[in-house]
Design brief:
The protein contains 1 helix and 14 strands; from the N terminus they run H-E-E-E-E-E-E-E-E-E-E-E-E-E-E. With 232 residues, the protein is mostly beta strands. It has a 12-stranded antiparallel beta barrel.
Length: 232
Amino acid sequence: MRLIRNLSAISLILLLTACWTPLGYESGKSISTPNPLPTVRAPQVGQEWVYSKKDVFDSKELAVITERVSRIGSSIVLSRTDANGYQLPSEIQDPWGMISTDPHWSKLITYNPAIPLWPQNLSGGWSKQISTQYTVAGYPGNAYQWNLLMNSMGWESITVPAGTFNALKYENLIHFDSPDPGKSDCTRKETIWFVPQIGHWVARESTGSCILEGENNSLRGNTTQWQLQSYK
């Protein structure tokens, strides 16, 4: 029964791939694939990335978030603070490039097993389907299905407040079970520009939707845009 459910979710993701147009609010200029391919910067304590988060439609700044490598051991911990220095939930990678605890949602979630943060092949034209389960902080007894299709779109030159970078552009198409029983067919689409030399992404767009119980139309969430302000 679970296999049938997973196949159904993956079929929906493939359908989204065919019919869901790119977000297109952020733009870059297509470039050739670097030769040789760059390597991903290894994590070191003290590395940090500062991002602004905006609502795409009204350009309102929603947050300024600093992510900093604070601990390296069997897993890598990225501590996060807002513009006022308030401590936010941390991101945990286990190992580097595989996220196990994800704070970028409305609630802190943990994947088991961990899922990739960026394409495992940086040459472009790469895609992979990943199925995992996740739990929500405060509700550890319930696990929910998470299906991801990661699709590499090729290399682009992109300019953000932190500078101009050559980045690998890729998309995440996600279908997941919601912990809210009143929501179904939840999907999320992300477009991300990843720069291996800084070990992180420089731009990110995200939008999503769910079907509400008793309604035919989908409820769309906020469409947000993240841009790198600075890094070290």
